[in-house]
Amino acid sequence: MTIYSLSSGPGISGIAIIRVSGKETSKVLKLLTKKSLPKPRVATLRKINKINTSELIDEGILLWFPGPESYTGEDMAEIQVHGSKAVIDAIHSSISTVENCRLAEPGEFTKLAFQNGKINLLKAESIADLISAETEIQRKQAIKIMNGKSADQFNFLREKLLNILSHVEAKIDFPDEDLPNDILKKIKKSSDEVLTNIKKILDDQKVGERIREGFKIAILGPTNAGKSSLLNHLSNRDVAIVSEIAGTTRDVIESHLNIDGYPVIVSDTAGIRESKNEIEKKGIKLAFKKAEESDLKIVVLHPENLNFKPFLEHSNSSNTIVVLNKSDLKLGKPPGIGNYQRLTHLGKNLEDIKIIHTSIKEEKNLDDLINAIKEKLKNKFITSDDILITRERHRQHLEQCLEHLKNFNKKNEVEDFDKAAEDLRLATRHLGMIVGKVDVEEILGSIFNDFCIGK
């Protein structure tokens, strides 16, 4: 089938770009323009007409890319016209009348590029990441993966495993032959090197995934402490409903932010308290779950409610900031606070925990809070050229590869070569699935569905 779709953003724009890819591309161009094909890769001004009636739709630029020298590896064209909905709809409607032409699915152009060997799977993913990048650090990471360093590293490790496998299979196929005496030592040394490299890649503190997905901050605390007000302040808009009525927030409300170039997802959660209301109880359960998944917890407390324990379990000074809000209230010094010794009684890991007195209503000390958040972000986004994992899919395959390598070493030591070879094949397969070297049809759908239509 020949596919077509709007590749530029939807909505009114100065220019819209419609892509066409497949065997019928040349036919589509001839029918739309009533002329022969333009020169390959040369921008050519043409009148675009309705196929059935020859009525003029618009005048625009055609770019013709004969396959295989195109993005998809097939015959492909880009039609640049004025970006009105009427023009785009008219062109789409005309192309749809050509036999074997249909609208593209999300990511289908890039999927074709992968299937036709123009790009590997990591590059396909990095293209999607670059399109959706909202911060500079996300853009840089996507470009780094696009440049192929990650693919080169995974292919290098895979080639080493294939080399080891050839030695093991030689040992199986020719048990009585005079193979080099040190072959077992070479196998052990090479497999240990690959195993060490994979362990190093996995020990990355998930920085790559954090950059791609965003640093997760959960705002926790009792009811009516000012959590929703804090989310609104950080977002610089009214994201959550603020009310004096305790328990207003029932669900998790998220806001995607850019703080000093770092991608951040801030979640406002339900106020934690004893409740008989089933909906509120579910909200509280979601709050605790969101806290477990977060990279940073901001615990917002009311001067009259300083029960820290529900919010600080499994916390430490590296992943928690305590905010004592509503300092504008003239309540006097709450009993038993002292120098917040009650915090240290929960464990030594909380002795250095950050406590900030704020008044969101009067915007007091909120800069201190934002600076504290920025400090946490810097520590969590320490990047290097060694970041190779950007998705959970990569991590799962590497972990599986590592497990099979460990099993291989155990079986290799007792010279159970047949079973050892199978573990090595599986380890090689998992590395191949990262870059798309093996049959990966089962994961293509989930990857390319994340793309926008037209890419």
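Second entry:
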Amino acid sequence: MNSGFRVLVTRRAERDIADLDPVARRRVQAALLDLEREPTARARKLTSSELGQYRVRVGDWRLVFDLEGRDVVVLRVGHRREIYRRG
């Protein structure tokens, strides 16, 4: 039952995912499938939209994404300690 959301992963996010260990990569990929069904179900709105509009927690990892109509654009994937740092 697809609600019509399409997940688009930026090149930067693809590189972030490729750098993950295999266990974390599988968990992130499962979270990406969840985003297709209902992107805001587990998401939290970020207070500063500088990095993105929303984030989803996957253990110690965060997926930062924007909603553009029916498209979920994954911008970054990173460790909770480092994802929000600037620079």
